[in-house]
Specification:
Distance between the termini: 17 Å
Order of helices and strands: EHEEHEHEEEEEEHEHHEHEHEEEEEEEE
Helix content: 25-40%
CATH architecture of the largest domain: 3-Layer(bba) Sandwich
Shape: elongated
Number of strands: 21
CATH class of the largest domain: Alpha Beta
CATH topology of the largest domain: FAD/NAD(P)-binding domain
Largest sheet: 6 strands, mixed
Structural class: alpha/beta
Strand order of the largest sheet: 5-2-1-9-21-20
């Protein structure tokens, strides 16, 4: 009788586990491993900012999952429910979004972040951009180009400054890399827009800590902050985005940054939350950072 292993999520943890199982199955015919993910490709998220900056093509940071696996079964669908007592998961897919029950002996959960949490901040969810998917990176690049084109237009009926103001919320790795990529992209594009100058561009990085990149320590964070400032990035430390009201990005320190609200120039790099919770305590952390349930 085969041992069924079900892996939910094909991110870093889930795909790494699937690849290990794929190798093991060569000498373990008793293993039956299934990988589930809503996307049919693995996305290397640390390079999303390079796609947004036009330094990489979207296909450069994706790997087709089916191409990477030889023995592990893969299904592109959503995992909507887990029944721990019956040891089965419900997955849904298709144009009619119908469901299937998948039984398992061992379950590995590596779904990562699925739903973006906007912390209930007024106007943020409806007007801001996020940076966690390939579509987000392409959308950001297109938005920067559109704003430059509109500001360049002689018949532009709006104030150009809001079109040329960009705010990134979050001074961690993702936020800093996104801001640096935006800065380089806009700086390289400006010579092709003769009526615009670098003095008109306003780039703002909002961070709740004293220095950015707190994961690297104060010394390296301060160094990175000074480098960004020297390149024209305005650092708003010890502050958070409180709301995006109309054309104003309001910060917790009481100041407001004027952007063009209906064009959504604010890029938020936020934390995420799970799509659903698992009502059980038999959860532990594996080698690759994902969670798993041992069958009992």
């Amino acid at each position: 009788m085969s041992t069924k292993v079900l892996i939910l999520g094909a991110g870093f943890g889930g795909l790494a586990a699937a690849l290990e199982f794929d190798k093991a199955m060569k000498s373990r015919p008793d293993l039956e491993v299934t990988l589930i993910d809503r996307e049919n490709h693995f996305l290397f998220t640390p390079m999303l900012h390079e796609v947004a900056a036009g330094e990489l093509e979207p296909t450069s940071i994706v790997i087709p999952i089916r191409k990477a696996l030889k023995r592990v079964k893969f299904y592109s669908c959503d995992a909507t429910r887990i029944d721990l007592e019956k040891r089965q998961a419900v997955v849904c897919h298709g144009y009619h979004y119908h469901g299937h029950d998948l039984r398992y002996d061992h379950l590995l959960v590596g779904m990562g972040s699925i739903i973006t949490s906007f912390f209930g901040l007024p106007g943020v969810e409806s007007q801001a951009l996020t940076m966690k998917s390939l579509a987000d990176a392409v959308r950001l690049r297109n938005r920067m180009i559109s704003n430059l084109e509109e500001a360049e237009s002689e018949c532009s009926t709006v104030d150009k400054q809001p079109l040329l103001t960009f705010v990134v919320a979050g001074g961690g790795f993702a936020g800093v890399e996104t801001m640096a990529g935006m800065r380089d992209f806009i700086h390289a594009a400006l010579p092709h827009f003769p009526s615009l100058s670098w003095r008109q561009i306003r780039l703002v990085l909002v961070h709740p800590g004293k220095t950015i990149l707190t994961e690297l320590g104060v010394e390296l964070g301060t160094y990175a902050q000074e480098k960004l400032a020297a390149r024209g990035v305005e650092i708003r430390s010890e502050s958070r985005v409180a709301a995006f009201e109309g054309a104003d990005v309001c910060l917790t320190d009481g100041t407001c940054i004027v952007c063009l609200g209906n064009c959504r120039e604010v890029v938020l790099v936020l934390f995420f939350q799970f799509m659903f919770s698992i009502p059980d305590q038999r959860l532990s952390t594996g080698r690759y950072g994902f969670s798993f349930f041992e069958a009992r």
